[in-house]
Amino acid sequence: MTVLETRPATHVPVSPSPARQVTRSARTRTYLMCAPTHFDVTYAINAWMRPGVAVDRQRALVQWEVLRQTYSALGHRVHVLDGVPGLPDMVFAANGATVVGGRAYGARFRHPERAAEAVEHAAWLRGQGVAVTDPTQTNEGEGDFLVLGSMILAGTGFRTSLHAHVEAARVLDRPVVSLQLVDPRFYHLDTALAVLDDGNGDAPADIAYLPSAFSEHSRRTLRELFPDAVECTEEDALVLGLNAVSDGRHVVVPVQARTLTRQLEERGYVPVPVDVSELLKAGGSVKCCTQEHHS
């Protein structure tokens, strides 16, 4: 896919090499989450979902609560959106909008099963004083829009249209880099790429990703922008290890992603492993549950 906009070549973000000593600094974040009160797998809209699979909702609730408390213990602010009966995927709050600088680009889900979630998110955000733009293009919020200080990395190929990238750039007033996803197991960008440092602090922007999840052109784009990025193993990607959340120092990551955890430690991050494996039955993990409100 093409790069819609990038920063001038002299300011291209460069990730730190493992040999370089980088001080990792956490920054307080604001998150929106939704408890899996109505979580279930009753339809199949991604490669992970198997209707009829036994779902332990109480276990999902306990795992979600541990994740919420983890964020709070790290000093972050967590808002909670009430779930709605009949919307079992609403726990995946990241998909509901993309929020930057007090403005939100609303979601427009590809599958009708999730369409009503966008309405709930927009209403909640407006109630908080956030200016929400209703989209005209299909997009699934932070599932496919990952925000850095200098740009937004945007996925396309399965859930979010390329036209939405253009619309998001206008609404959020940020350069957008389009990335083509090619493996249906990694149907959202946040299943194939994690932002480790957004570049808003003293350290440069840094990511981890699974190269094989992207088209050849997009792999080249990522290598150019992040030449020292962490390359995740497929084994860890298949437990949605890249569906992680970082505050610039602490990286909340699925406990099953053991090799990625070691890679993060080597890069100077502090991994915070959590188990949200019950939600994996619907193709979601840590980041899917977490909508960040970026400054």
Descriptive account of the structure:
With 295 residues, this protein is α/β, with parallel strands linked by helices. 22% of the residues lie in helices and 20% in strands. The strands form four sheets. It has a six-stranded mixed sheet, with helices on both faces. The longest helix has 17 residues.
Task: Break the fold down into its secondary structure elements and pairings.
Elements: E1 30-33, H1 57-73, E2 77-80, E3 97-100, E4 103-106, H2 115-127, E5 131-133, E6 145-147, E7 152-156, H3 162-172, E8 176-180, E9 193-197, E10 206-209, H4 216-225, E11 230-231, H5 234-237, E12 245-246, E13 250-254, H6 258-266, E14 270-274, E15 291-294
Parallel strand pairs: 1-2, 3-15, 4-5, 7-8, 10-11, 13-14
Antiparallel strand pairs: 1-15, 3-4, 6-7, 9-10, 12-13
How helix-rich are the residues, as a percent range?
Answer: 10-25%
**Alpha-carbon distance between the two ends:** 28 Å
> Low-confidence parts, pLDDT < 50 over ≥5 residues?
5-19
Structural class of the helix and strand makeup?
Answer: alpha/beta
**Subunit arrangement of the protein:** single chain
Broad shape: globular
> What is the ordering of alpha helices and beta strands?
EHEEEHEEEHEEEHEHEEHEE
How much beta, percentage-wise? 15-25%
If you compute it from the alpha carbons, what radius of gyration comes out, rounded to the nearest whole angstrom? 17 Å
Averaging pLDDT over every residue, what do you get? 93
Q: How many strands, which pairing sense, and closed or not: the largest β-sheet?
A: 6 strands, mixed
Number of helices: 6
